[in-house]
Amino acid sequence: MVRDILAGRKPLVLQKEIYLGWAMLAGIIIGLNLLSGTIGLIILFIVIIVLRMCSVHFSWQLPRRKLISTNERPKTKAITTTN
């Protein structure tokens, strides 16, 4: 992340891919001590790598909220009243 910021690029973990999601999942599993021991951590490592490879192969992406710029706002009709 620091490398990307120093290079003037958007950090890889903030891209639309699920890279950050898999890293957070592994961190939560380790942080909550759901897996312990060397074998458990190796299995977690392999699972996270396989999920990352699947997300690249199948083009899985995080949902994005479409922002409306000021030029793209839908035009509304002005309501006028006649007397």
From TrEMBL:
Q: Which UniProt keywords apply?
A: Membrane, Transmembrane, Transmembrane helix
Q: Name one GO cellular component term.
A: plasma membrane
Q: Does the keyword Membrane apply?
A: yes
Superkingdom of the organism of origin:
Bacteria
- Give the transmembrane region(s): 18-35
Q: What is this protein called?
A: Uncharacterized protein
